[in-house]
Amino acid sequence: LLYCDHSASTPPHPDVIRTITEVMEQVYANPSSIHQAGGQAEQLIRRAREVVARALNVHASEVIFTSGATESNNLAVFGTARAHAIDGKPRHMIVSEVEHASVYECYKQLGREGMDITYIPVDKNGCVQPEQIEAAIRPHTIMVSVMHVNNETGSLQPLAEIGSVLSRYPKVSFHVDGVQGLGKVPVDIRQWGIDLYSLSGHKIGGPKGSGILIRRREVPLKPLLYGGKQEHGFRPGTENVPGIVGLAKAIRLAAEGQPSNYEKLVSLRERALKQLRTLKPLVNNSPDIPLAAPHIINISFPGMKSEVVVHALEERGIIVSTQSACSSKMHKPSRVLLAMTQDTSRASSGIRISLDASCSERDIARLTEAFTEVTEQLRPLMKR
Ligand code: PMP
Asked: Where are the bilayer-spanning segments (predicted)?
Protein backbone atom coordinates (compact mmCIF):
# COMPACT_ATOMS: atom_id res chain seq x y z
CA LEU A 1 0.00 0.00 0.00
CA LEU A 2 1.27 3.47 -0.84
CA TYR A 3 -0.36 5.93 1.54
CA CYS A 4 -0.58 9.47 0.13
CA ASP A 5 -3.32 10.87 2.36
CA HIS A 6 -1.18 12.43 5.08
CA SER A 7 -3.31 15.56 5.27
CA ALA A 8 -6.21 13.38 6.43
CA SER A 9 -4.11 11.60 9.04
CA THR A 10 -0.57 10.35 9.53
CA PRO A 11 0.81 7.10 10.93
CA PRO A 12 1.90 7.72 14.53
CA HIS A 13 5.66 8.07 14.97
CA PRO A 14 7.19 4.96 16.63
CA ASP A 15 8.64 7.10 19.47
CA VAL A 16 5.17 8.54 20.05
CA ILE A 17 3.61 5.06 20.26
CA ARG A 18 6.31 3.92 22.67
CA THR A 19 5.90 6.96 24.91
CA ILE A 20 2.11 6.74 24.99
CA THR A 21 2.23 3.04 25.83
CA GLU A 22 4.69 3.63 28.67
CA VAL A 23 2.60 6.45 30.13
CA MET A 24 -0.62 4.42 29.87
CA GLU A 25 1.02 1.51 31.66
CA GLN A 26 2.86 3.45 34.33
CA VAL A 27 1.26 6.84 35.00
CA TYR A 28 -2.47 6.41 35.35
CA ALA A 29 -3.27 8.53 38.42
CA ASN A 30 -5.29 11.73 38.10
CA PRO A 31 -2.95 14.70 37.60
CA SER A 32 -5.12 16.77 39.96
CA SER A 33 -4.75 14.26 42.85
CA ILE A 34 -2.59 15.39 45.75
CA HIS A 35 -0.77 12.07 46.22
CA GLN A 36 2.60 11.34 44.72
CA ALA A 37 1.24 9.34 41.77
CA GLY A 38 -0.96 12.31 40.86
CA GLY A 39 2.05 14.59 41.15
CA GLN A 40 3.95 12.36 38.74
CA ALA A 41 1.17 12.67 36.14
CA GLU A 42 1.03 16.43 36.70
CA GLN A 43 4.78 16.60 36.21
CA LEU A 44 4.47 14.83 32.85
CA ILE A 45 1.93 17.42 31.68
CA ARG A 46 4.14 20.26 32.92
CA ARG A 47 7.09 18.89 30.99
CA ALA A 48 4.99 18.31 27.86
CA ARG A 49 3.79 21.93 28.07
CA GLU A 50 7.38 23.14 28.22
CA VAL A 51 8.36 20.97 25.25
CA VAL A 52 5.50 22.45 23.19
CA ALA A 53 6.32 25.99 24.33
CA ARG A 54 9.97 25.60 23.33
CA ALA A 55 9.13 24.02 19.96
CA LEU A 56 6.71 26.84 19.09
CA ASN A 57 8.62 29.65 20.79
CA VAL A 58 5.76 30.65 23.08
CA HIS A 59 5.41 30.71 26.88
CA ALA A 60 4.31 27.50 28.64
CA SER A 61 1.36 29.36 30.21
CA GLU A 62 0.10 30.04 26.67
CA VAL A 63 -0.40 26.35 25.82
CA ILE A 64 -3.91 24.86 26.22
CA PHE A 65 -4.20 21.11 25.59
CA THR A 66 -7.45 20.09 23.86
CA SER A 67 -9.03 17.05 22.21
CA GLY A 68 -7.90 18.11 18.72
CA ALA A 69 -7.94 21.01 16.33
CA THR A 70 -11.72 20.95 15.93
CA GLU A 71 -12.04 21.73 19.63
CA SER A 72 -9.18 24.27 19.49
CA ASN A 73 -10.85 26.12 16.63
CA ASN A 74 -14.26 26.06 18.31
CA LEU A 75 -12.66 27.38 21.50
CA ALA A 76 -10.89 30.14 19.58
CA VAL A 77 -13.96 31.30 17.64
CA PHE A 78 -16.79 30.86 20.15
CA GLY A 79 -14.48 31.64 23.09
CA THR A 80 -13.53 34.99 21.55
CA ALA A 81 -17.15 35.82 20.69
CA ARG A 82 -18.14 35.01 24.27
CA ALA A 83 -15.34 37.04 25.81
CA HIS A 84 -16.69 40.11 24.00
CA ALA A 85 -20.39 39.37 24.50
CA ILE A 86 -20.41 40.52 28.13
CA ASP A 87 -21.73 44.06 27.48
CA GLY A 88 -24.22 43.01 24.77
CA LYS A 89 -22.76 45.42 22.16
CA PRO A 90 -22.78 44.24 18.51
CA ARG A 91 -19.47 42.80 17.26
CA HIS A 92 -17.94 41.89 13.94
CA MET A 93 -15.65 39.02 12.91
CA ILE A 94 -13.67 38.28 9.74
CA VAL A 95 -12.91 34.86 8.24
CA SER A 96 -11.53 33.54 4.95
CA GLU A 97 -13.80 31.56 2.63
CA VAL A 98 -11.39 28.62 2.47
CA GLU A 99 -11.17 27.70 6.17
CA HIS A 100 -11.48 24.11 7.32
CA ALA A 101 -15.02 23.14 8.38
CA SER A 102 -13.97 23.28 12.05
CA VAL A 103 -13.51 27.06 11.68
CA TYR A 104 -15.97 27.82 8.88
CA GLU A 105 -18.94 26.10 10.50
CA CYS A 106 -18.30 27.96 13.78
CA TYR A 107 -18.64 31.24 11.89
CA LYS A 108 -21.77 29.99 10.09
CA GLN A 109 -23.30 29.19 13.48
CA LEU A 110 -22.27 32.54 14.99
CA GLY A 111 -23.86 34.20 11.93
CA ARG A 112 -27.13 32.36 12.63
CA GLU A 113 -26.90 33.59 16.23
CA GLY A 114 -26.70 37.19 15.02
CA MET A 115 -22.93 37.87 14.82
CA ASP A 116 -21.90 40.22 12.03
CA ILE A 117 -19.40 38.32 9.84
CA THR A 118 -17.36 39.22 6.75
CA TYR A 119 -16.20 36.32 4.55
CA ILE A 120 -12.99 37.17 2.68
CA PRO A 121 -12.66 35.67 -0.82
CA VAL A 122 -9.43 34.20 -2.23
CA ASP A 123 -7.60 34.76 -5.52
CA LYS A 124 -6.99 32.05 -8.14
CA ASN A 125 -4.11 30.72 -6.04
CA GLY A 126 -6.41 30.25 -3.07
CA CYS A 127 -4.73 33.11 -1.20
CA VAL A 128 -6.31 35.90 0.85
CA GLN A 129 -5.17 39.46 0.07
CA PRO A 130 -4.08 41.27 3.27
CA GLU A 131 -5.53 44.54 1.87
CA GLN A 132 -8.96 42.92 1.76
CA ILE A 133 -8.66 42.03 5.42
CA GLU A 134 -7.72 45.59 6.29
CA ALA A 135 -10.61 46.97 4.22
CA ALA A 136 -13.05 44.73 6.13
CA ILE A 137 -11.98 45.90 9.60
CA ARG A 138 -14.57 48.01 11.45
CA PRO A 139 -14.48 49.74 14.82
CA HIS A 140 -16.20 46.78 16.51
CA THR A 141 -14.21 43.96 14.81
CA ILE A 142 -12.97 41.44 17.39
CA MET A 143 -11.21 38.72 15.40
CA VAL A 144 -9.75 37.65 12.07
CA SER A 145 -9.39 33.91 11.28
CA VAL A 146 -7.09 32.85 8.44
CA MET A 147 -5.56 29.38 8.24
CA HIS A 148 -1.85 28.78 7.57
CA VAL A 149 -1.93 26.07 4.87
CA ASN A 150 -5.13 25.04 3.14
CA ASN A 151 -5.89 21.37 3.74
CA GLU A 152 -7.23 20.77 0.21
CA THR A 153 -4.89 22.72 -2.04
CA GLY A 154 -1.83 23.48 0.08
CA SER A 155 -2.27 27.22 -0.61
CA LEU A 156 -0.16 29.18 1.82
CA GLN A 157 -1.71 32.29 3.35
CA PRO A 158 0.36 35.48 3.79
CA LEU A 159 0.26 35.33 7.58
CA ALA A 160 3.25 37.62 8.18
CA GLU A 161 1.61 40.34 6.05
CA ILE A 162 -1.80 39.86 7.67
CA GLY A 163 -0.11 39.99 11.09
CA SER A 164 1.59 43.21 10.12
CA VAL A 165 -1.76 44.74 9.07
CA LEU A 166 -3.37 43.58 12.32
CA SER A 167 -0.55 45.02 14.44
CA ARG A 168 -2.19 48.38 13.74
CA TYR A 169 -5.44 47.09 15.30
CA PRO A 170 -4.38 45.79 18.73
CA LYS A 171 -7.95 44.98 19.81
CA VAL A 172 -8.46 42.54 16.91
CA SER A 173 -7.39 38.96 17.75
CA PHE A 174 -5.56 37.05 15.01
CA HIS A 175 -6.58 33.37 14.91
CA VAL A 176 -4.66 30.87 12.77
CA ASP A 177 -5.54 27.23 12.13
CA GLY A 178 -1.98 25.92 11.87
CA VAL A 179 -2.86 22.23 11.47
CA GLN A 180 -1.46 21.67 7.97
CA GLY A 181 1.53 23.97 8.35
CA LEU A 182 3.53 22.66 11.30
CA GLY A 183 6.49 20.53 10.27
CA LYS A 184 6.02 21.45 6.60
CA VAL A 185 6.56 25.21 6.37
CA PRO A 186 8.12 27.71 8.81
CA VAL A 187 5.84 29.37 11.36
CA ASP A 188 6.59 32.25 13.72
CA ILE A 189 3.71 32.79 16.12
CA ARG A 190 5.34 35.75 17.91
CA GLN A 191 6.80 37.53 14.91
CA TRP A 192 3.58 37.25 12.91
CA GLY A 193 1.48 38.51 15.84
CA ILE A 194 -0.69 35.39 16.05
CA ASP A 195 -2.93 35.50 19.15
CA LEU A 196 -4.68 32.12 18.86
CA TYR A 197 -3.06 29.16 17.06
CA SER A 198 -4.56 25.66 16.66
CA LEU A 199 -2.76 22.37 16.09
CA SER A 200 -3.79 18.73 15.79
CA GLY A 201 -1.71 15.73 16.91
CA HIS A 202 -2.74 13.21 14.28
CA LYS A 203 -1.55 15.32 11.33
CA ILE A 204 2.05 15.23 12.55
CA GLY A 205 2.62 11.66 13.71
CA GLY A 206 0.89 12.21 17.06
CA PRO A 207 -2.23 10.58 18.49
CA LYS A 208 -5.79 11.26 17.29
CA GLY A 209 -7.93 13.15 19.77
CA SER A 210 -5.07 15.44 20.82
CA GLY A 211 -4.48 19.08 19.98
CA ILE A 212 -3.54 22.46 21.35
CA LEU A 213 -4.69 26.02 21.26
CA ILE A 214 -1.97 28.61 21.86
CA ARG A 215 -3.48 31.67 23.48
CA ARG A 216 -1.11 34.61 23.75
CA ARG A 217 -1.24 36.31 27.15
CA GLU A 218 -4.00 38.88 27.68
CA VAL A 219 -5.96 37.75 24.60
CA PRO A 220 -9.68 37.77 25.57
CA LEU A 221 -11.09 34.22 25.64
CA LYS A 222 -13.85 32.41 27.55
CA PRO A 223 -13.99 28.63 27.93
CA LEU A 224 -16.65 26.52 26.23
CA LEU A 225 -16.69 23.89 28.96
CA TYR A 226 -17.10 24.52 32.69
CA GLY A 227 -15.86 22.30 35.48
CA GLY A 228 -12.45 22.01 37.09
CA LYS A 229 -9.50 24.36 36.80
CA GLN A 230 -7.41 22.27 34.39
CA GLU A 231 -5.65 24.05 31.50
CA HIS A 232 -5.83 27.42 33.30
CA GLY A 233 -9.63 27.03 33.37
CA PHE A 234 -9.87 27.17 29.57
CA ARG A 235 -10.34 23.43 29.19
CA PRO A 236 -11.66 21.68 32.29
CA GLY A 237 -11.72 17.90 32.51
CA THR A 238 -9.17 15.29 33.54
CA GLU A 239 -6.26 15.63 31.16
CA ASN A 240 -5.48 13.02 28.50
CA VAL A 241 -2.01 12.44 29.97
CA PRO A 242 -0.72 9.85 27.45
CA GLY A 243 -2.16 11.88 24.57
CA ILE A 244 -0.57 15.09 25.85
CA VAL A 245 2.85 13.49 26.27
CA GLY A 246 2.61 11.86 22.81
CA LEU A 247 1.44 15.10 21.25
CA ALA A 248 4.32 17.09 22.75
CA LYS A 249 6.78 14.59 21.32
CA ALA A 250 5.14 14.79 17.88
CA ILE A 251 5.18 18.61 17.94
CA ARG A 252 8.87 18.66 18.87
CA LEU A 253 9.78 16.18 16.11
CA ALA A 254 7.69 18.10 13.55
CA ALA A 255 9.22 21.46 14.45
CA GLU A 256 12.78 20.07 14.45
CA GLY A 257 12.24 18.25 11.15
CA GLN A 258 10.63 21.18 9.32
CA PRO A 259 13.63 22.57 7.39
CA SER A 260 14.76 19.19 6.05
CA ASN A 261 11.14 18.05 5.46
CA TYR A 262 10.61 21.16 3.35
CA GLU A 263 13.57 20.49 1.07
CA LYS A 264 12.65 16.85 0.62
CA LEU A 265 8.95 17.55 -0.02
CA VAL A 266 9.70 20.29 -2.57
CA SER A 267 11.81 17.85 -4.56
CA LEU A 268 9.17 15.06 -4.35
CA ARG A 269 6.46 17.50 -5.38
CA GLU A 270 8.38 18.74 -8.41
CA ARG A 271 9.11 15.17 -9.46
CA ALA A 272 5.43 14.16 -9.12
CA LEU A 273 4.12 17.23 -10.94
CA LYS A 274 6.57 16.83 -13.80
CA GLN A 275 5.09 13.39 -14.52
CA LEU A 276 1.47 14.27 -13.75
CA ARG A 277 1.56 17.31 -16.07
CA THR A 278 2.01 14.97 -19.04
CA LEU A 279 -1.40 13.36 -18.37
CA LYS A 280 -4.51 14.56 -20.19
CA PRO A 281 -6.83 16.23 -19.34
CA LEU A 282 -5.04 17.44 -16.19
CA VAL A 283 -5.66 20.71 -14.36
CA ASN A 284 -3.39 21.57 -11.45
CA ASN A 285 -5.46 23.23 -8.71
CA SER A 286 -2.56 23.92 -6.33
CA PRO A 287 -0.44 27.01 -6.82
CA ASP A 288 3.30 26.60 -7.29
CA ILE A 289 5.91 26.98 -4.55
CA PRO A 290 6.26 29.44 -2.79
CA LEU A 291 2.51 30.09 -2.84
CA ALA A 292 1.80 26.53 -1.69
CA ALA A 293 3.15 24.25 1.00
CA PRO A 294 5.07 21.41 -0.63
CA HIS A 295 3.19 18.38 0.72
CA ILE A 296 -0.24 18.86 -0.88
CA ILE A 297 -0.95 18.49 -4.60
CA ASN A 298 -4.52 18.99 -5.81
CA ILE A 299 -5.34 18.04 -9.39
CA SER A 300 -8.50 17.60 -11.45
CA PHE A 301 -9.16 15.47 -14.48
CA PRO A 302 -12.23 17.36 -15.73
CA GLY A 303 -14.85 14.89 -16.95
CA MET A 304 -13.52 12.11 -14.71
CA LYS A 305 -15.31 11.84 -11.37
CA SER A 306 -12.83 12.13 -8.55
CA GLU A 307 -14.41 9.22 -6.63
CA VAL A 308 -13.91 6.95 -9.66
CA VAL A 309 -10.24 7.95 -10.02
CA VAL A 310 -9.63 7.55 -6.27
CA HIS A 311 -11.16 4.05 -6.24
CA ALA A 312 -9.29 2.98 -9.40
CA LEU A 313 -6.04 4.11 -7.73
CA GLU A 314 -6.96 2.24 -4.58
CA GLU A 315 -7.31 -0.96 -6.62
CA ARG A 316 -3.65 -0.42 -7.51
CA GLY A 317 -2.71 0.06 -3.84
CA ILE A 318 -2.45 3.86 -3.96
CA ILE A 319 -4.32 5.83 -1.30
CA VAL A 320 -5.24 9.45 -2.15
CA SER A 321 -8.41 11.41 -1.42
CA THR A 322 -11.11 13.64 -2.82
CA GLN A 323 -11.30 16.99 -1.01
CA SER A 324 -10.65 16.66 2.71
CA ALA A 325 -11.60 13.61 4.75
CA CYS A 326 -14.07 15.67 6.78
CA SER A 327 -16.12 16.73 3.74
CA SER A 328 -15.45 13.90 1.27
CA LYS A 329 -18.55 11.95 2.22
CA MET A 330 -20.85 14.87 1.39
CA HIS A 331 -20.41 14.32 -2.39
CA LYS A 332 -20.69 18.04 -3.02
CA PRO A 333 -18.28 20.18 -5.07
CA SER A 334 -15.41 21.38 -2.91
CA ARG A 335 -16.18 24.74 -1.25
CA VAL A 336 -12.46 25.59 -1.34
CA LEU A 337 -12.00 24.84 -5.06
CA LEU A 338 -15.23 26.72 -5.85
CA ALA A 339 -13.96 29.77 -3.95
CA MET A 340 -10.71 29.60 -5.94
CA THR A 341 -11.98 28.77 -9.42
CA GLN A 342 -15.76 29.46 -9.51
CA ASP A 343 -15.77 26.33 -11.70
CA THR A 344 -18.17 23.59 -10.55
CA SER A 345 -16.68 20.94 -12.83
CA ARG A 346 -13.17 21.55 -11.45
CA ALA A 347 -14.52 21.75 -7.92
CA SER A 348 -16.21 18.34 -8.37
CA SER A 349 -13.17 16.57 -9.76
CA GLY A 350 -10.40 17.55 -7.33
CA ILE A 351 -8.04 14.83 -6.15
CA ARG A 352 -5.71 15.48 -3.23
CA ILE A 353 -2.33 13.80 -2.98
CA SER A 354 -0.74 14.57 0.39
CA LEU A 355 2.82 13.49 0.98
CA ASP A 356 5.07 13.05 3.96
CA ALA A 357 8.83 13.33 4.21
CA SER A 358 8.95 9.53 4.60
CA CYS A 359 7.88 9.17 0.92
CA SER A 360 10.64 8.19 -1.49
CA GLU A 361 11.37 8.92 -5.13
CA ARG A 362 10.34 5.34 -5.90
CA ASP A 363 6.99 5.99 -4.24
CA ILE A 364 6.49 9.01 -6.50
CA ALA A 365 7.32 6.88 -9.55
CA ARG A 366 4.75 4.29 -8.41
CA LEU A 367 2.18 7.01 -7.78
CA THR A 368 2.57 8.66 -11.17
CA GLU A 369 2.59 5.31 -12.98
CA ALA A 370 -0.71 4.42 -11.33
CA PHE A 371 -2.17 7.80 -12.32
CA THR A 372 -1.04 7.21 -15.91
CA GLU A 373 -2.69 3.78 -16.02
CA VAL A 374 -5.92 4.97 -14.43
CA THR A 375 -6.35 8.01 -16.65
CA GLU A 376 -5.62 5.90 -19.75
CA GLN A 377 -8.20 3.39 -18.60
CA LEU A 378 -10.84 6.05 -17.89
CA ARG A 379 -10.27 8.34 -20.90
CA PRO A 380 -12.19 6.20 -23.46
CA LEU A 381 -15.14 6.07 -21.06
CA MET A 382 -15.21 9.88 -20.96
CA LYS A 383 -15.73 10.16 -24.71
CA ARG A 384 -18.79 7.97 -24.83
N1 PMP B 1 -8.01 22.20 10.52
C2 PMP B 1 -7.47 21.65 9.42
C3 PMP B 1 -6.82 22.54 8.41
C4 PMP B 1 -7.50 20.26 9.23
O5 PMP B 1 -6.96 19.73 8.12
C6 PMP B 1 -8.12 19.45 10.22
C7 PMP B 1 -8.17 17.94 10.07
N8 PMP B 1 -9.04 17.49 9.06
C9 PMP B 1 -8.68 20.07 11.36
C10 PMP B 1 -8.59 21.44 11.47
C11 PMP B 1 -9.35 19.27 12.43
O12 PMP B 1 -8.44 18.59 13.23
P13 PMP B 1 -8.90 17.41 14.19
O14 PMP B 1 -9.06 16.22 13.32
O15 PMP B 1 -7.78 17.28 15.18
O16 PMP B 1 -10.16 17.82 14.86
From this structure: none
